Amino acid sequence: MQASIIIADDHPLILRGLNDFLIEKKYNVLASAVNGKEAFDLIESHKPDIAILDIQMPYFTGLEIAEKCKDLDYHTKIILITFEKDETIYKQAKNLGIYGYVLKEFALEEIEHCIDNVIRDIPYFSRELLSSLEVEEAPEELETLTPTEIEVIKYISDNKTAKEIGDLMFTSFRTVEKHKSNINKKLNLTPTKYSLLFWAKENKNHLI
């Protein structure tokens, strides 16, 4: 069964363009909204699999809606679309468990890839966003990783699952999970569902 989607943006032309594009691509778009209150009402009434939300909207922002959904334990996965390339907003989105972050200038190029990742339960953050944020020096903890562990992280940064990594490295799923556990410890990461994925993407440029 195809994932159900609602979309919201207070710019009519962007909303219509995104709506028409998704319908043309045969996505199951249930409804659309022009402000945050309408968007949250649609999430409450339809319980969609995915909500694609503008960050800056009247009444509720996309982040405020995400926070409400998190507090209410709704299972709708939030994708944010925005012009903002702001590190603070990015960190807020990560902390709220946002599944996708797509820049509007690349929305039609990236939204399909983003949705397909989210359907597979893999967060997607625009490469342009990550590359525009300030790049820090390589974390010292990176030096503690073995070549095999670095290879695992490279695959993780490309959204590969543990099974896919195992197939690529000719090893078992269990071995990959063990590597991931060791990497989390060496990097001092809280072993939440996506902590390693976000670390891998943020530090991809340092993975030689």
Protein architecture, described:
It is a single chain. With 208 residues, the protein is α/β, with parallel strands linked by helices. The protein has two domains: 4-132, Response regulator (Rossmann fold); 140-206, Winged helix-like DNA-binding domain superfamily/Winged helix DNA-binding domain (Arc Repressor Mutant, subunit A, Orthogonal Bundle), CATH 1.10.10.10. 49% of the residues lie in helices and 13% in strands. It is built from ten helices and six strands, in the order βαβαβαβαβαβααααα. It has a six-stranded parallel beta sheet, sandwiched between helices. Strand 1 (4-8), helix 1 (12-24) and strand 2 form a beta-alpha-beta unit. Helix 7 (147-157) crosses helix 10 and helix 8 packs across helix 9. The chain is elongated, with a radius of gyration of 18 Å. GO terms for molecular function: DNA binding. It comes from Bizionia arctica. InterPro entries: CheY-like_superfamily, Sig_transdc_resp-reg_C-effctor, Sig_transdc_resp-reg_receiver, Tscrpt_reg_LuxR_C, WalR-like, WH-like_DNA-bd_sf.
User: What's the arrangement of strands in the largest beta sheet?
Assistant: 2-1-3-4-5-6
Radius of gyration (Å): 18 Å
Structural class: alpha/beta
Uncertain segments are none
What name does CATH use for the topology of the largest domain? Rossmann fold
Protein name: DNA-binding response regulator
GO molecular function, one term: DNA binding
Domain HTH luxR-type: 138-204
Keywords: DNA-binding, Phosphoprotein
